[in-house]
Design brief:
The chain is of the alpha+beta class. The protein has 5 helices and 4 strands, in the order αββββαααα. The radius of gyration is 23 Å and the shape is elongated.
């Protein structure tokens, strides 16, 4: 990729798109390229689309540019999704990482937990998720700030859980 000329592009059913993002002191350009011709070379079942994603980052403070390439494989095909939607799905993955996993690892200290056997790890993960959800429902955008607010009084925590506290 990319194909040379219109004939090759039509033969390979080549598609490309570029998506630009600006923020956090940098400009990112994600170039996605795909061709269904690659699907048959993979031994994965139900390959719908193979995508090459090239990420070019310009750091505004240093004017340095970095380039990284990754390959994506999905069961979604071109009839169900376009390359812009693939990029949205790829970037959406980090929402889960930042909203759920980071909070559990850092704010709750899940990685330091010594519970390792039975159902205890799953129960504690469910409780952590429930506490984080309650704090978000109450409008707290940062979990540690919600913790500090609830530390003031046990009645605050009980009220959040729907318990009538006197």
């Amino acid at each position: 990729m990319p194909p040379k000329g219109t004939c090759e592009s039509e033969f390979w059913h080549y598609e490309t798109t570029a998506v630009h993002h600006r923020g956090h002191g940098r400009t990112e350009t994600h170039t996605l390229e795909s061709t269904p011709a690659l699907n048959h070379y993979l031994s994965f079942a139900d390959v719908g689309l193979v995508v090459r994603r090239t990420r070019t980052v310009l750091e505004h403070s240093t004017q340095e540019t970095s380039v990284s390439v990754e390959y994506l494989i999905t069961s979604l095909d071109r009839r169900r999704v376009n390359l812009e939607q693939i990029e949205q799905l790829r970037r959406g993955h980090w929402t889960i990482e930042n909203v759920v996993h980071y909070v559990r690892d850092v704010s709750f200290g899940e990685d330091r937990s010594q519970l390792r056997s039975g159902n205890a790890p799953q129960v504690m993960a469910a409780l952590r998720n429930a506490i984080a959800a309650l704090l978000r429902i109450e409008g707290w955008t940062t979990i540690p700030a919600g913790f500090r607010f609830c530390e003031r009084s046990p009645q605050i925590s009980l009220r959040l859980m729907g318990v009538i506290a006197t």
